[in-house]
UniProtKB/TrEMBL annotation:
<feature type="transmembrane region" description="Helical">
    <location>
        <begin position="93"/>
        <end position="117"/>
    </location>
</feature>
<keyword id="KW-1133">Transmembrane helix</keyword>
<keyword id="KW-0812">Transmembrane</keyword>
<comment type="similarity">
    <text>Belongs to the UPF0382 family.</text>
</comment>
<dbReference type="InterPro" id="IPR006696">
    <property type="entry name" value="DUF423"/>
</dbReference>
<dbReference type="Pfam" id="PF04241">
    <property type="entry name" value="DUF423"/>
</dbReference>
<protein>
    <submittedName>
        <fullName>DUF423 domain-containing protein</fullName>
    </submittedName>
</protein>
<keyword id="KW-0472">Membrane</keyword>
<feature type="transmembrane region" description="Helical">
    <location>
        <begin position="42"/>
        <end position="60"/>
    </location>
</feature>
<feature type="transmembrane region" description="Helical">
    <location>
        <begin position="67"/>
        <end position="87"/>
    </location>
</feature>
Length: 121
């Protein structure tokens, strides 16, 4: 299941990146394109992170990844989703949600680090 979710995230990242590069370019301001690009970059990084977690869960089944996986997924939705929506012209107030998504992503990696340290002992 983890690998399938990761693969879907990667597919969506490619689709959204292509839309930003080809479909949005003619209609968006420079700021909107920057938001879109930032969202797509972070989407890709964290979708690859999800795939790494999914692989880790197969290689080291004792390493708990569920919390990190969920935090990253929700972080993607909040961080990238808010930037995508603003890039599409929705109110900039959505930018208040962006840092919440970033904090969730950071928390996910810290939880993984903590669990990896516990597993190493």
């Amino acid at each position: 299941m983890w690998i399938a979710i990761s693969a879907l995230n990667l597919a969506f990242a490619v689709m959204l990146g292509a839309f930003g590069a080809h479909g949005l370019k003619a209609h968006a301001s420079e700021a909107q394109l920057v938001w879109w690009h930032t969202a797509t970059d972070y989407f890709f990084y964290h979708a690859l992170g999800l795939l790494a977690l999914a692989i880790l869960s197969k290689v080291i089944p004792q390493l708990p990844i569920k919390t990190s996986f969920i935090l990253i997924q929700v972080g993607i939705l909040f961080f990238c989703g808010s930037l995508y929506l603003m890039a599409l012209g929705l109110p900039r107030v959505l930018g208040a949600i962006t840092p919440i998504g970033g904090a969730l992503m950071i928390a996910a990696w810290l939880v993984l680090a903590w669990n990896a340290l516990k597993y190493a002992r």
